[in-house]
Write a structure and sequence with these properties.
4-stranded mixed beta sheet, 11 strands, 3-stranded mixed beta sheet, elongated, alpha/beta, single chain, 543 residues
Length: 543
């Protein structure tokens, strides 16, 4: 007879609760009874033991099968999480933002998009950068503040010839305030550098020979660029995005423009323009007005026209609340402080990016949702940081537009509609968005005052008489126009290029989109003079 230890001893690595233990135990029990103790045991005990062993073996097999299946499920789940982590890690950027693939997976996990909702974006938001020195050597030495012209375009910039005339009118001029503070200062006087006196003859001579404005262009990624002889060549920003009307990508593209312009420490004012915009004042009046304004041209006040139905409860964050909701025209000006705030923001931006979108339901002739980030984001951002007082209540933005057609798009002017009367209309004061009249825009006084606040660089260095006059009364920029007066106008399309240029070549004092010297040199006409009237007899299109 075999020893009982042959079926009562079990491997030490097996625990009492494991299926392997049960299986091991009853196999040895059945073996001992059938072979070791068969001769001394009755048949009944053998049958019962065999039956019990069979049931226990079957039970252990089922338990083992369940354990294997459970292990497989855990393995698949672990594999899925590993895949998600790998994609997250691969798309993580240096600024902490996550690329599009993760955003798409997240949207799937969160559920289906709402009807008409566009695919979720997670834009690249680089941190603000600032150069130690401006690329304009003259401006850098003298510390001349600049106005950054930010062109948000669909590609082509139509009015290059007119913008060239406009920039040429500021050639070689330095603000008198800079001369008084930097050149005439007896303790820290700066000599006017030679770079202020040199003249460029290159393709962008009009741009390089002036020191008041800088230019940045955003065009779609598909746009191949401008001709090397173009004024806009080399001005396209590095980061670009395909934009659509009413989409949040307009804010994204604007942010890329601001990011690039903010690098230049001399840029203190930032003016947003489109390819169809033209200035309605000469560059000196424009520059003086913007530098004198301490507020951004954003409507940061609460009133009935803020379109509160566009707010979505899911936009609320620790900082952003419903009472911060504001509405302001897309075409705006920003101070450097507010640009820095926009470039540092991610919390408010992400909420607009995720929840502010628009889509039209053709079947039911209604909006699925109508929220336009370009009309709300920047003003709401200021309000969320308690900077309501640093905007302009009832601001109409910076660009004159005609909404006579009462459509989603302003009127586009054809060539035969463009005349000096249109400039007068754009400059004239009108009622506010709430129907209250604005102060009058006295542009004659503003233009005359602006001309007295600039001096040629060649006359600024070593001019003791000029410095003495500045010691008696130091020049300073003071806003001559109410901050509700427009400074630009739109929309002037590609078919209006010739008519716009002709408008710039009106050399009369009451128009003065460019300096009289430049105007006459380019063949312009003083239409109110006797010579101008005679000229119109022979050339009907002269004025």
């Amino acid at each position: 007879m075999r020893k009982s230890s042959t079926w009562t001893t079990f491997p030490t690595e097996l625990t009492r609760s494991s299926p392997e233990l049960l299986l091991h135990q009853h196999r040895h029990t059945a073996s001992g009874l059938l072979f070791g103790d068969f001769g001394s045991s009755n048949g009944r005990r053998v049958v019962e033991s065999v039956g019990k062993a069979t049931k226990m073996i079957r039970s252990a097999s089922y338990a083992r099968l369940r354990a294997v299946r459970q292990a497989r499920l855990h393995s698949r789940e672990a594999l899925l999480w590993c895949l998600l982590f790998f994609m997250w890690a691969s798309m993580m950027r240096s600024d902490g933002s996550i690329g599009a693939p993760f955003g798409i997976i997240t949207s799937v996990l969160e559920g289906k998009r709402a009807p008409g909702e566009p695919p979720h974006r997670h834009a690249y938001l680089p941190e603000a950068e600032v150069y130690r020195h401006s690329q304009d050597e003259c401006g850098d030495v003298l510390g001349i503040p600049r106005v950054a012209l930010l062109f948000l375009t669909t590609g082509d910039l139509y009015h290059e010839s007119s913008w060239r005339l406009w920039l040429r009118s500021a050639e070689g001029l330095i603000p008198s305030q800079v001369v008084a503070q930097r050149v005439c200062n007896s303790t820290s006087g700066v000599v006017v550098p030679a770079s202020c006196l040199l003249k460029s003859n290159g393709y962008d001579a009009e741009y390089k020979n002036q020191h008041l404005f800088s230019i940045y262009v955003h065009a779609p990624p598909s746009f191949e660029g401008y001709d090397p002889a173009s004024l806009w060549h080399g001005k396209i920003v590095d980061y670009r995005v395909a934009t659509e009307w009413g989409a949040h990508t307009l804010v994204e593209a604007t942010r890329h423009l601001l990011w690039e312009a903010f690098k230049d420490p001399l840029n203190t004012r930032f003016l947003l323009l489109s390819e169809s915009d033209i200035p309605i004042y000469d560059p000196l009046t424009m520059y003086q007005q913007l530098q004198a304004e301490n507020s951004s041209r954003l409507d940061t006040c609460v009133h009935e026209s803020t379109s509160p139905w566009r707010w979505h409860p899911r936009m609320e964050t620790k900082r952003l609340k419903f009472h911060h909701w504001r509405k302001s025209p897309q075409w705006m000006t920003l101070t450097r402080e507010h640009v820095e705030l926009a470039l540092s923001d991610k919390e408010v931006y992400r909420m607009f990016e995720r929840h502010c979108w628009s889509a039209w339901d053709d079947e039911h002739s209604r909006w699925h949702r109508d929220c336009f980030s370009d009309e709300h984001y920047f003003a709401t951002l200021l309000a969320s940081h308690d900077k309501d007082s640093e905007g302009i209540c009832e601001s109409r933005g910076v660009s004159f537009t005609s909404w006579e057609a009462k459509s989603a798009h302003p009127k586009a002017y054809s060539g035969n509609e463009i005349s000096p009367d249109l400039i007068y209309q754009a400059r004239a004061a009108s009622k506010s968005i709430n129907g209250r009249p604005f102060p009058e825009c006295n542009w004659h006084e503003a233009q005359e005052n602006a001309r007295s606040l600039f001096h040629p660089a060649a006359e600024a260095s070593g001019n003791e008489a000029l410095c003495e006059s500045f010691r008696i009364k130091e020049p300073s920029f003071e806003a001559q126009l109410p901050d509700t007066c427009f400074l630009t106008a739109r929309k002037f399309g590609k078919d209006s290029v010739f008519a716009v240029r002709k408008l710039f070549l009106h050399c009369d004092e009451d128009i003065s989109l460019i300096s009289r010297d430049v105007c006459l040199k380019e063949g312009g006409t003083i239409c109110n003079s006797l010579l101008g009237r005679i000229k119109t007899i022979f050339y009907k299109d002269a004025c």
